[in-house]
């Protein structure tokens, strides 16, 4: 009788453990698929052309459209280390250019950003949390503050310094062209 009760107790514990794992430890299938795709694209990032990268981003964006706000936030947070590495690599490439090449690249990025705005895309079209909530409207000051704090956690002081330097160069170039950096054209997909 004691063995029977012990067996029933163990069976109940196992069932509860499986339910608990499924409830708390199971991965959201939509997020798991996106994380796998992200990992694959990140691994191949140096092997594909700019056009292939753009197509990959667009396909990725389409998959993101079906996610809830909570799923998007979760995905973005799990992806932050990847995004920061990619951003730093792009910053390093840009900062390694000659001043004339940098000017040319800045002009190209400014023109692309202005074209997106002209086509109704806005300065941050397709570009992460700066674009506001999926339901529309700008993020609340509270959400902006939360995002800034997370960015401090996700980046090193060196990465932030590179980003600040590059954005200052971008804004200075906009001013040289007679454009107001605060009126839009704020980089979009620059990094």
TrEMBL record:
UniProt keyword Transmembrane helix present: yes
UniProt KW keywords: Membrane, Transmembrane, Transmembrane helix
Transmembrane segments: 6-24
Region described as Disordered: 114-148
Residue ranges with Gly residues bias: 119-135
Protein name per UniProt: LTXXQ motif protein
Organism: Bythopirellula polymerisocia
Lineage start: Bacteria, Pseudomonadati, Planctomycetota, Planctomycetia, Pirellulales
